[in-house]
What does this fold into?
Amino acid sequence: MFPLSQATGYAVLALNCMEEPGGEPIQVATVAANMGLPAAFLAKVVNRLASHGLVTTRRGRHGGVVLARPAQLISLAEILQAVEGDDWDKGCFLGHKSCLVSDCQCPMPLPWRERIEDFKVQMAQTSLANLGCYAPQGIPARPVRGKCPEKGTTASGRAPARGPARG
It folds into this structure.
């Protein structure tokens, strides 16, 4: 279960660039270039999302991907399941090969185990639409769903300021 893979982070970033059903498809290569992600790896991640029914793909010159459902109907738990696998929430927080189910065997104090359960519940209750604007370091945040920032621009479409202001 923990830690979550980099692929999950890429999935969330890519999904935030996609429009809702009926919207304009965006090509995976465009998402990758604009977000600074490796295109071949992102394509594999998007394929996993498609196979789990989170995105729909359209082939051809005007093809690309869009969300399969409105963002408020896609939970983070579904994204984790698509990318990390069906057992994303079954593993050991401490990295053991299997979870030590019995309370007397688990070295994790009860309050921490309760927080882990809280995390799982939060993932199930948090939708893609609930996420705030986030972008990796060096990539400006995008405030509007379905609009990836163009490489080298801010979310407003302007080039970022370079260096300290002179006056």
Observations:
- The helical segments are 6-17, 28-35, 39-51, 76-84, 110-125.
